Amino acid sequence: MATYKEIFGKQVKQVSSDPSAAVSEGQIWFNTDAGVFKTALNVGAWSSGGNLGTAKYNLMSANGAPSTAALAFGGGGPSALSSTEEYGGTSWTAGGALPTGKFAGAGAGTQTAGLSFGGRPPSSGATTTEEYDGSSWTGGGAMPVAKMGLAGCGIQTAALAFGGSPPTRNTTEEYDGSSWTVGGTLSVAFEDAAGAGTQTAGLKFGGRSTPTQTTEKYNGSSWTTSGLMNTGRGYLAGAGIQTAALGYGGKTLPSTYQTSTEDFNGSTWTTSSATMAVTRIQFGGTGATSSGALAFGGENAGAGSIATTEEYEKAITTKTLTSS
Amino acid sequence: MELFMYGTAVNTGKGFFTHEDRQDFYLAGHPGNVWVIGKNEKGALWLAAKNGVTKTHAEAQAIVDAEVTAGQTAWDALSDEEKAISNRPGPITLPYA
Description:
heterodimer; A: 2 domains; four-stranded antiparallel beta sheet; 30 strands; 41% strand; B: alpha+beta
């Protein structure tokens, strides 16, 4: 059998203590103190975050916010909630309340420049938009069509709203900070999908549609189809940008709740080894990159409304190599 | 060899389970603060560190069943409009191996 040196041209280093994470990714070494071979891999995993102040589902989030500075607003419990909560990386604190209770809408932007649009009530969907400045909400321009169960992405002054119902829609609207205009049309009408990216580089994936695995990319004027998710699902959440996104949770139709996570590289989806610890649908999600995301609230398969939060992070993890 | 152990522990938020924990053992949360944990040394240490209470599969399943039943009763009492925007809690079968 060939030796390591014959294959790679060098020997495995012997060290008495593990190297730092900054230099160890992809390396193999022999730890002389422990008497074992080790390696370091960049591994994604979900860990627990601070619990929301109130258990809620069908909530919205500023889905362009980083996972350490998230914004959750509205939701059902089961009546429409107006409360806002801000995440600081460890715990949630109360923010300014929405003018009225709202759920099943969409969000964009960040914790200090957030955007809420669409949703219900009424049961026919809302056209209203609200802008958050880090402490209070004020009214923005009305959407040209009432929607709920829609998806969104972008920032407060350049956001995208797409899909939704009723009836199930394939339309897109673009926000410029004061008014909405009609954008390109998706190839598939859907509701309860996830969105990521920006107004000129947007991403839609999953959703309650036929089929449920579809992905479409927006270039500022039109949508084109991309790789299918491995597990088609609705009521999921997403994070990241058009070329590096994360989709997680939700449920396959009709009712299998998911903990699985998928990575998108701009063209194809790969199922991650990282799974959330609890199932959740109709929950809040955020994350500016595919390396850091947040899942909060929602409905659990058996428990109904939940308040827990999970944080996704890719981190260098040292592993001991075994022969099995 | 059994693959899972069962216990109850209250999710206290940040740090309750870490990135490293998720690499070290299987972990799945269920109603009633029931956790299904990969049966290894690190999984057992985690449950003990969280002041958890070890349960048999049957005990854990009974807790989950009671929570699901309570959730279904609460959901059944909602108005039709409230039912339309939420989902009736469904049965959960804990893995046994």
